[in-house]
Every structure is written in C-alpha cells, then in structure tokens.
C-alpha cells in the first residue's frame, strides 16, 4: 500500500501538530483507563484511535501544515461527524483566515483499509488531502519521529484504478515559539535509553562505546590467538607480528606503587559517584514526598505542612 | 455424595487453562456449603487430586476439611498433608483464592505450635510466602507467622532469607507491626544489632492512630538494642505519630531508668538498676538482652580508651573501666579484638595493650566491590522512586488536589513541571 | 605569724589539686595567703559605699583574725563618716567587741544621724512636692536626684534606685541622661542586679556626643563587670581592654584601675587565642598603662605568651588568695584558673609530635599521674588531638587521616540514607492503606 510518492509536493510539518496529536491521544487513553478503573479488560489492550483535521497553507508545490484540531469519530458508521467538522472549520477560519483544511490525522501503526473511506469523504473539501499518522507506541531503538505522511494516488492494480496511500517525505519546520516549547517538553524527562540530555552524559556515553568496542575487538583477537595456539587455524606470522607490535604499544605498568595509586583513585571516583547518586536520589525522594503529602494529607492546610511521612 | 464426586471430576477437568480455572473458581465458590457439609468424605477425595495440577480445587477441599476441630492424632497427618500441598502447589492458581490459602497456612501454623514442633512448619511456610507474594517487595500476612515459627524454633538463619527482601508494599498494618517486631527479634538472635535496630525503629515510628501492644513491646526492645549498638537512645524523630510520642514512654519506665544509669558510664550503677528492676525485665522476657546491655557498657568504655591512649596496661584498663581485675580486662579486650570492634595487640610479658588505628585504607578491590554494590542499590532505589513518583503523578487524587490549589497562583508563577535538568 | 610557715605547703596542695576541687570547698577552707594583703592599701583605692562593702567582704572571707579585725575597723571608721546606721550596727555586731570600747555601737551618734535623716527627708519631700506643683522639670529632676542620693547614703538601695529611675522622665539634656544612667548603674552594681546595669549602659551609649572620655571609660567598666557576672568572660575581657586610661581614679565608687587590669588580663588569658592575646593585650598601648599598676598580671601574661608556664602558674597561685577576697571576682577565680591551665596545656602540646610526660609534668609542677588524668580529660573533650602511650609515658600527636574519615562517613551516610528511604516507603505504604481504608469507609 505504501510506496514513495511521485506527486512532487514537498511537505513541511510543524511540531505543534505533532504535540497536538500526541496530547489528544494521551488524554483519550488516560480517560479511558480512568473509566475502566484498573479493571483488566481485553478492550483496553487495544489503544484507542483518535482522529482529527490538519490545517495549513499550500503555496505552489509546498504544503505547510501548521495546526490541527480534533474531530468526532462515530465508530458505528465508521465516519467523521460532518457537521462538527464544518462548524470547527468555520471557527478556525475566523481566527486563521489563511489556513485551509489540508487533510486529516489519526493514530496507529500504519494506514489501514478503513481509513480510505474517511480519506475519500474529505476529498470534497480538499481534492488531494494528506493523511498524517502518528505511531504512539514508544520504540527506543527508533531514531526518527514516529510520524508518517501519506498521500492518495490513483494506481492501476489488477486492471482496476484504485486510490492507494503512498508515503511522502516531509521536513520539520519550526517557529521560534515552537522551538521553546519543544525544548521545554524535551527536558521534562530524559528517556531511559534515549539520547543524552547533557554534555557530560554525551561525553561519557562516547567514551563508554569506545571502550566497549575496544574490549570486543581485543576479545576477538584473544579468541583468534587461542585457536591459533590450539592449532585450529594455521599460524600466520605476519598477523602475529602485528599483534605483538600492538601489545608492545600498550603502556602496561605493573609496579606496586601504580597499583596502589590506581586503586586509591578508583575508590575515590567511586565514592564521589556514590555521593552524587544518593544526592540525586534524595532529590527524587523529596519530590515524591511532596506529592505524597499533597495527595494523602488528611488535614487540608494551605502551606506549612508538618512532617507527615 | 455424588455432588462431591461431580465436583472432583470438574476440578480434574477444568484445571488446565486460565479461563477454565476462572470458571472453576466461581464454581468452587458456589459449592462451599456442599464442601462444608461433607467434611468426612473429603479426606478420601483429596487422594484423587494432584496438588500440583489441581491446586485450586485441592485448596478448597483442604480448607474445608480442616475447618472443623482437629484431634491430636489427626494433627500430625494434617500437618504433613498441608506441608506437601504447599510445596507442590502452583502459585498462579492459589493466588486466585488468597484468603483460603492464608487460612490453610494459619491452620498449619496452629497445629505445628500445638504439637510443639515449630521447626516442621518452617520450610512449608517459607515456600508459602514465596508463592503468595506477588513480588519480592510485597508483605503478606504469612510473613509474621513464618518469622514467629523461626523464633520459636530458634532457627534464625532460616528467617534471614525472607528478611533479606526489602519490603515496600504493605497491606495490613497489623502484619507490618508483627513482621517488623519479629524481624527485629530474629536479628537480635543473629547478633546483627544494626538491622534489628532498623526493624524495631520502623515499628516505633510507624504511623498509628492508637497505641498497640506490639509497639510498646517493640519500644522496650528498641531501647535495649539501641543501648547495645550505639550507647544511647535517640529522641523520637519528627515523623513519629503523636500517639507514640506521648504514650510509649509511660509504659517503659524501668527501661528509661536503665538508660539514665547507662549514661553515667559506671558499671556499678547499671548493675544496681538491673537488680532493682529484675522482676519487670523477667516478665517482659528481656533478661537476656539486658545482660548484653551490661557487657556492652564495659566494651564501650574500653572503646573510649582507644581514642585517648596508645598503650595502656591491663591493670589500668581494669581500673578505668571498673572491671574486677586485669584478667577480666584481658578477656574483654581479647573478645573485642576477635569481634573486630577494636584493633589492638596484647603484650602478655608486661601486661600492656597497644591500640592501633583502623588498618582499612580504602584502597582495595574489596572496597571497590563494596562501593559498587552500594551504587547499584541506590540506582535500583532511584528507579523504584521514579516509578512511584510517576504513579502518583497520574493518580487522580493527586491531580484533583493540585488542580484545587492552582487558582491561588499567578499563571506566570505557577510551574507544575519540575525543572530538573535545566 | 604562724601563717607564713604554713603558707608554702598549703600552696603545693592547692596547686596539685587545681581544677579538681570544686569552688565550694575553697570557700569553706580558710584561705591562707602567702603575701598578706595590705588591707589599708587595698581599701584606699576605693571610696564610698563600695569601700565599706569590700572591707566587710574581706572580713567575712579571710581566715585571718588580724586581717579581719583590721578590715572591720576600717569599715567602722568609714561608716562613721557616712550616714548609714544600719550598716554600722551590722559591722559592730561582727566586731563583737574585739576592738575595744572605741568600736562599740555608738547609739548617740546613731540617733543623731537618724533624726537628721528624718528632717532631711521631710525637707526633701516638701521641696519635691513644691516642685511638682510648679511643674518645673529641672527642679523635679534634681529633687528626685537628691532623694536618690539621700537614700543611697542611708543604705536604702531599693528606694534610691526607684528615685533615680524617676528622674528619667524629667531629663532634658543628654548630660542629664548620662548622669541618671551613671547613678542607676552605681546603685544596681551595689544591689548586684546587673541586668539593669546592662540596660543603662546601652542607654547611655546612645548619646555618644555628650560622653567625655572618663564617662566612656566608666561605662566600659560597668559593661565589663556585667559580662563578668554573667560568666561571659570573652566579652568582659574585650570591654575591660577597651577601657581608656582616662578612667584613672574617677570611678573609685565602683572599681579601681588595678581591678580593670586584673579582670581584663585574667579573662583575656582564659578566653583569647594567641593572636587575639597578642593584638589586644600585649600590643595594646592603652592597656599597658593599666598593667603597670599590677605588675604580676603583666608578668603572668607575658610568661604565658612566651610559654614559661611554670612561672606563669606560680604568679597565678600567688594572686589567687587575694583574688578570692575580691567582691566581684571571687566566684569566677576557679573557673578562670582552670581555663587558663587548660589553655596552657593545650598550647604546650600543640607544636610537638611527641611529648615526654615527665618533662611536661615538671614544667607544670605536677606529677605524671595527675597530668595524665588532665590530658585524658582534654583529649576526650577533643581539645587536644593526641594519644597517650601509657607504658612509656609519652604523648603522641595524632592527625586524623582525612581521607579515611571521609570514606567512613560517606559509607555510613549511604547506609543510613538507604535505611531511611526504605522506612519512608514503608510508612508511605501504610499511610496510603489507611487513607484508602478511610475513603472506603466514608463511601
């Protein structure tokens, strides 16, 4: 269903749209969880799909998507609430006279068959709407944004001309205000396996990966030498010479004094790391205690709570 | 008669997949009276079931069959039966009916105590604890029972494995109090006073709305262990409940006297206090601990000497610490050297003791490992804290209260996002 | 006299028992001084009521019959010059007829004085009432002032105090205020109520322009005395050291310049560290003038500074007996002495890595056992960083290894932190449970 687009349009996406979609999705999901109230039911394992419209400006071959708003989806008829859409469009037109409805969005992993209905329904507003899909599942390994933009194209399949979704590439365009808010959101919580938030962490990560690579390479060499010793592999003298010269380059100091000083420094660094760790932990604990006290404080007092926990 | 057989057939049939088990569970709930009315027959029916596969059904039958009064001859058999069941049952199934499991285990404990062989109950109950726990950080009502059996049987080491889990989730305050109290006693038995103090401290400072007997007993032991470990009893921390702060001291007057005589540093005073209150200590079963307090005083005095003297004659030690003679002093010093409490060498020729500094230089590989493991621990703790923090942030009760406070602030000032890494 | 032979031996006892005997004992023991205090010379330094009080005090405290009688005689003479009949009766009782008929209660004199007092009092009363009706501020003030003087002369200190206080409302110039303050201070010191002294010294200090150097000096002395009474030796030392030489003999109703030197010197020695001692005392040109008056104190301070502890302690001992007869210093002597001794010991051990206890004992004129006990007390108190080798009787300095101490503390803190956080989580769990129970019950 998805191949690369050939329409030649360049898409520019603003971060506001992405934040809007993700906010919509999160809200619906947590409200649903609250309603279910923790009762394990099979339906909750399927994340809800949310739908909405994207609006923006099209200038020549460039389509710039600035904003978005939510739409009511009727799961019975499997279509968008038309009147609501028109009303919203009118309201937005008043505030942003330049923006037109460029297309619609939804969440999910990929474009689905049923989406084509909605897509066709929108075609009367915009001849060639775009379809923005946000993938809400968190994948730490993925480097790119989980957002894909689809266009519809008429392709001939099995002799029948059909509208299918084709993937388009896009770039992110940021306005100054958006940059600040994105920065703010990014600092909320450094993800566990994600990119480093500070320079120090970046530096240490680099050093760590370098050492890891060195370690694995040395291990390979070691294996190689062992097998050579066992006789599994024929002796290759030139390689042996290279290995020996490598070894001679290593500054291996073996004196007792070095060992002593080295261990002392190692211990000192570890101690400082330890101190830093539990200082950090105590700050987390502090926030936790504040939140806990707010939630479970039996006396409603404004300011100045006694030691409660 | 037939209904029981029908029930058994059902149990055998429906014990394979999770949905079946749920159905079986509801069915079993409905057949409770049936089971209770046919108690005598159940023993035979139990033979037909396999505890490892049909755990849930077996559990119900077992519970019903032991619900009535049990005679002495039967109790031995019952104990073995329950023990076997616990060791072989399947954890998933019994977690569906935790109260039944709990009552079965309690019956085991009662029987074992009646028969005065607490040691028989230890292994089964330990298995039971692990099976009932949803995670190693969860406290079950079985924990205090298990620890009680360990104490009665004096098998402290067995208790240690359960105690080494760090508990974070607690359901019932009573379980918690008993657990900490028994845990403290076990550690005292293992002579690990630091951990004992931790447990007893938890009991004393736990939030409570009304005073309970466990806290009082725990406070008495807390005073004694505190004296042994650090030589003084710290004041109540701020977070102790006001109930505890006001009332605990009234019930433990003889121990407070002990504290004041300990503070003088003189063995004679301590001994007189001990004699005076001997009856009360006996009635609280704390005589052993009080004796340890006495010996700890002389040890502490000797330790103080290590701070001021480099060498000291045994006779001088005996005089300064008020021990009887130099032989006693030598014994004490030897004991302390062996326990690692002081670093010294005794020169028997001229009766001199030389005190040394702590030889630990903090430069060794063992130290590295020690610090590393501490770091790992703190990291795990931080992760737990983060998880709890997130959970509370999404808690509707918290959000409701935060929302209520919002209008008080200016929109500019109010920042609900913690600025952690800016 | 027989006292002199006994003198030196009792001195040695007193020395080795230094700091270990409590102050009460020395008060009960008769104090035998090796140099007889010259009561006459001492008394000539003072005037007015304080002279009498000091003489009575000496008579009560010294164990020496001759000195006692001498003091009482002088007191009687002094009282006769004044108008305090009550005090006269007391002194006569103390004399108990030992000084012969000339020192009996002279009732005639007493009656005359009393009657005169009555008349004067009436007159003053009438005058004051007259002034009050006329509402002339200055006269009312002077009237109250006269009343105060009158009561003071007759020993009714409370009434004197009240009257002096009353003049406050009628003071118009700064000079008046200062005069009032000085009067109140005088009465309060006599009464022993040093709280008022402190207040009124502050009050007087608030008018710096009207103060001439003598008054400044007087106020500083008064402040110093307050601190001394309150056992704040460091502050007392500072005040005494700041007293200007203009004091001279102008404040003999309260204090003599010799006293300023003694109090200031001793307190400084007990409390200041070496730098402060050098700057504020030894290099202090102003204070040097005071120290000239009491050469022993000067020598003693210099000896301490140059580590000649033996002679320093000797001077101290010599002075001790006389100081115990001083009305302001007597109950502070023991404390100050023990503090000075401790400082001496600490200073002695400070520059060395190891000290032989025998040499140290001879430097401090004590025996090794006693010295060891003193050192043990100081080490336990953490004033000296050292350890005693009891076998060889050597004191070794010990410098704590910072790195090890840090490691220990960090590991300890980590363990405690871990324990505390886990306990907190447990308590949180309990609280949450209780909360949900309560919520469930409410529904």
UniProtKB/TrEMBL annotation, chain A:
GO MF annotation list: metallopeptidase activity
Pfam families found in the cross-reference section: JAB (PF01398), MitMem_reg (PF13012)
InterPro entries: EIF3F/CSN6-like_C, JAMM/MPN+_dom, MPN, MPN_CSN6
Annotated MPN domain residues: 11-156
CDD domains tied to this protein: MPN_CSN6
Entry's Gene Ontology cellular component terms: COP9 signalosome; cytoplasm
Keyword Cytoplasm applies: yes
Keyword ATP-binding: no
The organism's place on the tree of life at top rank: Eukaryota
Signal peptide extent: none
GO biological process per UniProt: protein deneddylation
Annotated keywords: Cytoplasm, Nucleus, Signalosome
Subcellular locations according to the entry: Cytoplasm; Nucleus
Function (record text): Component of the COP9 signalosome complex (CSN), a complex involved in various cellular and developmental processes.
Sequence similarity: Belongs to the peptidase M67A family. CSN6 subfamily.
Protein's name in the database: COP9 signalosome complex subunit 6
TrEMBL record, chain B:
Domain PCI as annotated: residue spans: 192-360
Compartments where found: Cytoplasm; Nucleus
Signal sequence interval, chain numbering: none
One of the GO biological process terms: ubiquitin-dependent protein catabolic process
GO terms under cellular component: COP9 signalosome; cytoplasm
Keyword Nucleus on entry: yes
Top-level division of the source organism's lineage: Eukaryota
Major subcellular site: cytoplasm
Keywords noted in UniProt: Cytoplasm, Nucleus, Signalosome
Family to which this protein belongs: Belongs to the CSN3 family.
Entry protein name: COP9 signalosome complex subunit 3
Classification of source organism: Eukaryota, Viridiplantae, Streptophyta, Embryophyta, Tracheophyta
Automatic annotation (TrEMBL), chain C:
Keywords: Cytoplasm, Nucleus, Signalosome
Native organism taxonomy: Eukaryota, Viridiplantae, Streptophyta, Embryophyta, Tracheophyta
Database matches in Gene3D superfamilies: 1.25.40.570
Keyword Metal-binding tagged: no
Ranges where the PCI domain occurs: 232-402
Annotated stretches, region: Disordered: 1-27
Main location: cytoplasm
Matches recorded under SUPFAM superfamilies: Winged helix' DNA-binding domain (SSF46785)
Sequence similarity: Belongs to the CSN1 family.
Compartment annotation: Cytoplasm; Nucleus
Domain of life where this protein originates: Eukaryota
The protein's name: PCI domain-containing protein
Recorded GO CC terms: COP9 signalosome; cytoplasm
DNA repair found in the keyword field: no
Native organism: Aristolochia fimbriata (White veined hardy Dutchman's pipe vine)
């Amino acid at each position: 269903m998805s191949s690369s687009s050939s329409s030649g349009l360049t898409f520019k996406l603003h971060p506001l749209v992405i934040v809007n979609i993700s906010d919509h999705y999160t809200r619906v999901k947590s409200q649903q969880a609250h309603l279910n109230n923790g009762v394990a039911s099979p339906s909750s394992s399927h994340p809800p799909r949310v739908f909405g419209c994207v609006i923006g400006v099209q200038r020549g071959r460039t389509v710039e998507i600035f904003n978005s708003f939510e739409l009511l989806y009727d799961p019975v008829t499997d279509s968008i609430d038309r009147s609501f859409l028109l009303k919203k469009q009118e309201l937005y037109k008043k505030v942003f006279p330049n923006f037109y409805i460029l297309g619609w969005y939804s969440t999910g992993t990929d474009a689905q068959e049923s989406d084509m209905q909605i897509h066709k329904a929108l075609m009367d507003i915009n001849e060639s709407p775009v379809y923005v899909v946000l993938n809400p599942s968190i994948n730490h390994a993925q480097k790119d944004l989980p957002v894909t933009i689809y266009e519809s194209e008429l392709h001939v399949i099995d002799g029948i001309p059909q509208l299918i979704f084709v993937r388009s590439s896009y770039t992110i365009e940021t306005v100054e205000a958006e940059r600040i808010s994105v920065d703010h959101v990014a600092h909320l919580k450094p993800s566990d396996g994600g990119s480093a938030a500070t320079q120090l962490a970046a530096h240490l990560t680099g050093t760590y990966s370098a050492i890891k690579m060195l370690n694995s390479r040395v291990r390979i060499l070691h294996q190689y030498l062992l097998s050579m010793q066992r006789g599994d592999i024929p002796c290759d003298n030139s390689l042996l010479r290279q290995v020996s010269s490598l070894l001679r380059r290593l500054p291996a100091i073996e004196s007792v004094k070095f060992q002593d000083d080295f261990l002392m420094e190692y211990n000192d660094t570890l101690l400082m790391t330890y101190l830093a760790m539990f200082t950090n932990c105590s700050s987390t604990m502090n926030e936790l205690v504040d939140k806990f006290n707010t939630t479970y404080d039996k006396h409603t007092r404004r300011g100045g709570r006694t030691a409660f926990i | 008669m037939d209904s029981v057989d029908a029930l058994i057939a059902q149990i055998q049939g429906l014990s394979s997949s999770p949905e079946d088990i749920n159905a079986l569970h509801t069915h079993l709930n409905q057949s409770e009276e049936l089971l209770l009315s046919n108690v005598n027959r159940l023993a035979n029916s139990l033979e037909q079931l396999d505890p490892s596969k049909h755990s849930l059904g077996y559990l119900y039958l077992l519970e019903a069959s032991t619900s009535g009064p049990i005679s002495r001859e039967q109790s031995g058999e019952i104990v073995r039966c329950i023990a076997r069941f616990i060791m072989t049952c399947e954890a998933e199934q019994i977690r569906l009916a935790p109260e039944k499991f709990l009552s079965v285990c309690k019956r085991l404990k009662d029987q074992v105590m009646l028969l005065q062989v607490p040691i028989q109950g230890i292994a089964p109950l330990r298995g039971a604890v692990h099976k009932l726990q949803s995670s190693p950080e969860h406290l079950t009502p079985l924990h205090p029972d298990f620890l009680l059996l360990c104490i009665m049987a004096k098998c402290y080491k067995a208790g240690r494995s359960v105690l080494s889990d760090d508990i974070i989730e607690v359901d019932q305050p009573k379980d918690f109090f008993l657990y900490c109290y028994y845990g403290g006693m076990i550690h005292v038995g293992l002579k690990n006073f630091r951990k004992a103090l931790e447990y007893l401290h938890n009991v004393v400072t736990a939030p409570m709305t009304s005073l309970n007997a466990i806290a009082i007993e725990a406070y008495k032991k807390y005073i004694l262990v505190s004296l042994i470990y650090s030589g003084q009893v710290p004041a109540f921390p701020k977070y102790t409940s006001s109930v505890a702060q006001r009332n605990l001291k009234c019930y433990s007057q003889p121990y407070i006297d002990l504290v004041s005589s300990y503070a003088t540093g003189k063995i004679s005073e301590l001994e007189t206090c001990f004699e005076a209150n001997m009856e009360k200590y006996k009635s609280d079963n704390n005589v052993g601990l009080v004796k340890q307090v006495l010996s700890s005083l002389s040890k502490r005095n000797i330790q103080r000497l290590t701070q001021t003297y480099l060498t000291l004659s045994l006779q001088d030690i005996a005089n300064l610490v008020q021990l009887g003679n130099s032989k006693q002093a030598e014994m004490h010093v030897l004991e302390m050297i062996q326990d690692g409490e002081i670093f010294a060498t005794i020169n028997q020729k001229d009766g001199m003791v030389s005190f040394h500094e702590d030889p630990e230089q903090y430069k060794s590989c063992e130290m590295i490992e020690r610090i590393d493991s501490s770091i790992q621990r703190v990291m795990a703790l931080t992760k737990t804290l983060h998880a709890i923090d997130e959970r509370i942030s999404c808690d509707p009760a918290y959000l409701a209260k935060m929302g209520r406070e919002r209008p008080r602030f200016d929109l500019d000032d109010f920042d609900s996002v913690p600025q952690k890494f800016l | 006299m027989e006292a002199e032979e006994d003198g030196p031996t009792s001195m040695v006892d007193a020395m080795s028992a230094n700091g270990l005997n409590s102050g009460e004992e020395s008060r009960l023991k008769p104090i035998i001084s090796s140099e007889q205090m010259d009561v006459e010379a001492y008394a000539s330094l003072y005037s007015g009521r304080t002279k009498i009080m000091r003489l009575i005090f000496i008579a009560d405290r010294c164990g020496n019959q001759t000195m006692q009688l001498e003091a009482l005689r002088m007191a009687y003479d002094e009282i006769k010059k004044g108008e305090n009949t009550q005090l006269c009766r007391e002194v006569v009782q103390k004399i108990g007829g030992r000084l012969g008929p000339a020192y009996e209660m002279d009732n005639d004199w007493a009656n005359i004085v009393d009657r005169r007092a009555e008349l004067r009092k009436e007159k003053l009363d009438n005058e004051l009432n007259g002034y009050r009706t006329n509402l002339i501020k200055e006269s009312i003030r002077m009237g109250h002032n006269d009343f105060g003087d009158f009561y003071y002369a007759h020993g009714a200190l409370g009434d004197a105090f009240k009257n002096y206080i009353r003049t406050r409302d009628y003071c118009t110039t700064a000079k008046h205020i200062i005069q009032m303050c000085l009067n109140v201070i005088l009465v309060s010191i006599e009464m022993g109520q040093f709280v008022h002294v402190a207040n009124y010294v502050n009050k007087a200090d608030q008018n710096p322009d009207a103060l001439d150097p003598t008054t400044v000096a007087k106020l500083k002395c008064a402040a110093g005395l307050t601190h001394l009474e309150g056992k704040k030796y460091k502050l007392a030392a500072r005040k005494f050291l700041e007293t200007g030489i203009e004091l001279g003999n102008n404040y003999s109703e309260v204090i003599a310049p010799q006293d300023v030197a003694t109090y200031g010197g001793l307190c400084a020695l007990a409390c200041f560290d070496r730098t402060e001692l050098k700057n504020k005392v030894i290099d202090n040109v102003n204070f040097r003038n005071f120290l000239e008056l009491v050469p022993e104190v000067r020598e003693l301070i210099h000896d301490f500074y140059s580590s000649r502890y033996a002679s320093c302690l000797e001077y101290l001992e010599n002075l001790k007996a006389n100081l115990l007869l001083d009305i302001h210093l007597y109950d502070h002597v023991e404390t100050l002495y023990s503090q000075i001794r401790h400082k001496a010991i600490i200073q002695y051990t400070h520059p060395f890595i190891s000290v032989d206890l025998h040499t140290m004992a001879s430097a401090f004129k004590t025996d090794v056992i006693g010295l060891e006990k003193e050192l043990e007390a100081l080490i336990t108190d953490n004033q000296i960083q050292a350890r005693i080798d009891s076998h060889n009787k050597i004191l070794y300095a010990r410098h704590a290894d910072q790195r090890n101490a840090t490691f220990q503390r960090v590991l300890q803190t980590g363990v405690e932190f871990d324990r505390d956080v886990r306990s907190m989580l447990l308590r949180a769990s309990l609280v949450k449970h209780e909360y949900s129970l309560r919520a469930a019950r409410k529904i």
